[in-house]
Design brief:
Elements lengths: L8 E7 L14 H17 L4 H8 L6 E8 L8 E11 L3 E10 L2 E11 L1 E3 L7 E3 L4 H7 L4
Antiparallel strand pairs: 1-3, 2-5, 3-4, 4-5, 6-7
Length: 146
């Protein structure tokens, strides 16, 4: 995982439980995507951008995921403790990219990336949302300036 620039970042610890694993005792791959998502939300919350704030202060519905990928570098099993690092590597007009790296000890075991959009409600009879420009105050936080 490499990035051209570094913005907002966050590190947390993940404990791997039996229920995270498949019959072979290795982490079932969808769990990594759930951990990426939770890490992104933990990072935003730590920066003061929890969903209550996004809605109340900025009128956003949230930051839905529009693309995700992962590269698996080594096995992880129950009882392992991972260090999960994430960092915002790109901020566009309506979207931002978060890169993830999970480590077992000093060894990276999974690298991944998410692309998320800033979402607002679409008026109408059916619930709907659309990508909207990221507010300058949020952009500053995502870029590590705020």
């Amino acid at each position: 995982m490499s990035s051209d620039r570094t913005g907002l970042g966050h590190t947390r610890t993940l404990d791997v439980f039996w229920g995270d694993c498949d019959a072979a005792g290795v982490v079932f791959y969808p769990r990594y995507y759930a951990w990426f998502d939770a890490s992104t939300h933990a990072m935003l919350t730590a920066a003061g951008l929890d969903h209550h704030t996004l809605r109340a202060r900025f009128g956003a519905l949230g930051t839905p995921l529009v693309q995700a990928s992962a590269r698996f570098l080594g096995p992880v099993t129950y009882g392992d403790r991972l260090r999960a690092e994430c960092v915002v590597t790109q901020v566009g007009t309506k979207s931002f990219t978060v890169q993830h790296r999970l480590h077992l000890g000093d060894s990276p075991v999974v690298e991944g990336e998410e692309v998320r959009v800033w979402a607002e409600a679409v008026p109408g009879d059916r619930p709907a949302m659309r990508a909207a420009p990221i507010p300058d105050a949020v952009r500053a936080v995502l870029e590590g300036r705020g």
